[in-house]
Structure formats: structure tokens, C-alpha cells
Amino acid sequence: MIIDCHCHAGKGDLLTAPWNTEAPLGAYLRRARAAGIDKTVVFGAFHSDYSKANAEVARIVARHRGRLIGFAFVHAKHDAGRIFAMVEHAVRRWGFRGIKIHGHDGMPTREVCDTARAFRLPLLVDVFGQAHVVDMLATQYPDVNFIIPHLGSYADDWRVQQRVVDLLVRYPKNVFTDTSGVRNFEYIVQAVRRAGPHRVLFGSDGPWLHPGAELHKLRLLHLPPHQEALILGGNILRLLRQVRVNGRPTAATQRSSSREAASAHAVEDSAAAYGHREQELLREEWL
Ligand SMILES: [Zn+2]
Question: Is the pTM of this model over 0.85?
């Protein structure tokens, strides 16, 4: 099974850049199907209110049941105090299976990492070129699975990507990378050779980047089939299967007041329109 672990969906409100302010999936879904991609992890674009962005992603996931897997986008600072509630809602109500955080907004806080830990959710962190934070995250939270997209730098900063390869070697249990947008092919080769094929995940950063082109890049590694299968889907599937839907808040995540939790839950919840049984299917079908 081929799973794209990194794609955006929905519309942001910040007009940051063409590729991260709006992510329509029409062309992506056609291209992904043609390329043989079975499932895709999706999360929002940059937004001033991720509870709205996540609700839109939930509607999109519900329309493509079985093909899309939602991750909850959170802002470590703006959403402080309600992150557990937002993620709990996304996991239990919408069947989301991971957290996305972007260094442009703010690096993960303990609240974010404790929430990931509570549900055993993979935490996809765009470190935005700041590879040094990976070292701290990996040691402070050895039981949280961190996916560092773009080998640490969407801008292909070789110093960052080289360092992330070293960090993959240094933290063999809980640090992973995705290959989305990585142009420095030699660092993908190094990541696979030095850290192992079980640490590298196929991601496209669609819909702006072409999922077929990003997938072809990995075919060009000419790996043995079992190793290629790990990168193209086996690794993300292994991480997704660890998710525990009934996560409990801990002291660190309990800062969410009941009022904040209520407002997070009050977000337009279109998935409710699909009914309880549909929600169960939504949660379990892709596993
Ligand atoms: Zn992205």
C-alpha cells in the first residue's frame, strides 16, 4: 500500500504564499490515483484559527472516506491551553490520526508533545530549518514519534538536511523524516543508507508539488522491494497503528479549561452530519 504522509487540504486565511494558503485537492487526487497512491495524510494550510482549518479538513476527509487520513494542525502559542481539547476532538470525533505543527508558527511546547504522547499520535513538525530543536524534542520525549518533513528544510538548506540525517542516526527510535520537496537527492540516499529505510517516509507536500514526481524520486533509489515498501507506506502505517483513541489528559495537558474545551468543540462540526456509524467507519476503515 502506498501512503503519501504529507499533503495539505483546504483554504488558509493568511495569504502567506501560493503553495501554503490554499490547497484544493482535485488535481492532487487525480494525480495520486494515476501514480498508484492509495491513501494520503492531509492537514490544513496556514491559518489564524486552526480549529476552523481542522474542521474544513474533517469535511474533506469525510468526502473521501477511506482515502484521506486527517492530522490536526495546532499552533503551539495561539492554541495554548486548548491543544489537548482540539486534538481530542479531532481524534475522537473526526478520526484524525496525527498532529501537524509548523515552526513558522512556533515550535512544539510540552503541551503539544504531552498531547501527542497521550494519544500516541505521530507529531509531524516542520522545523523550518531549525534542526537543533530535533535533538531536544527527541530526548525530552523519547516515546513520541517525530516526523521531520523535508529533511528539515523545505528550502533545501544542505546544512540543515545534513544535520537531520545525523539526527536520524542519533535517535534510532523516535525520529523520522519525510521526503516531500527534497531536491538534494544525495541526502535521501544518505538517510536511507545511514539511518535505515524504516526511518524515511514518502510524502509529496501536495497539492502544490506533484505526488507522482515525488513518488518517482523514491523509485529512483532502486531499493529492494521490501525496503521500498517501508518508505512508501509501511512506516507511516506502523506509526498510525500505535494511535490510542482513548488518550487521557495529564497534568501538562490539563491546562485546558472546560470553557476552552467547550469553545473548541463548538467549532462547526460538519462531520456530525455523517452520523455515528459513519464516524466509526471513518475512524477504522483505513487501518
Ligand atoms: Zn507541507
Answer: yes
Ligand 1 mean position to 21 CA, how many Å?
11
Report the separation in Å between the CA atom of 243 and the middle of ligand 1, taken as the mean of its atom positions: 22
Which domains, from first to last, does the chain contain? Answer: 3-282 (3.20.20.140)
3-state secondary structure (DSSP) of residue 149 = helix
Q: Where are the beta strands (DSSP E) in 44-174?
A: 68-70, 72-73, 99-102, 123-126, 146-148
d(CA 112, CA 108): 6
| CA of 149 relative to ligand 1 center, distance in Å | 8
Distance 276 CA to ligand 1 centre (A): 31
pLDDT tens for each residue of 175-227:
999 999 999 999 999 999 999 999 999 999 999 999 999 999 999 999 999 99
Ligand 1: centre distance to CA 145 (Å): 18
Cβ partners under 8 Å of residue 251, min gap 6: none
What is the DSSP pairing of strand 3-8 with strand 72-73? unpaired
For 136-141, the CB contacts below 8 A with 24+ separation are 137/108, 137/113, 138/167, 138/170, 138/171, 138/174, 138/175, 139/171, 140/110, 140/113, 141/113, 141/116, 141/117, 141/174
